[in-house]
Amino acid sequence: GLIHIAERVAGQHIGEFALLDGKARSDDAVVGSQPADLIMLDREPFLRAMEQHPVIAQNIIVSLVGRLRESSKRAEEHHSLNVTG
């Protein structure tokens, strides 16, 4: 079955791990019932864009840190649940 990891809204990115480390994508994306326009980026042009425009790298780092904080918070909340939770 599917495991819901995260929900993203318009303007947010997915699949950045594979763009950054060059490994296979670790998850699949499922689009909800609303139409969605997606932009797919290849790794090499993305890396060049980050080199030419460091603000792109800074924004990706800030976004990843935010997601890591969310994940840590969820892990803490999950850890504090009792057996019936």
Characterise the protein shown here.
The structure is a single chain. This protein has 85 residues and is mainly α. Helices cover 49% and strands 0% of the residues. The chain has 3 helices and no strands.
Write the layout of secondary structure elements.
Elements (H helix, E strand, L loop, with lengths): L15 H6 L21 H10 L1 H26 L6
* Overall SS class: mainly alpha
The 3D shape can be described as globular
Number of strands: 0
* Strand percentage: under 5%
Reported for the largest beta sheet, the result is: none
Radius of gyration: 16 Å
Give a nutshell description of this structure.
The chain is mostly helical and 85 residues long. It has helices at residues 16-21, 43-52, 54-79.
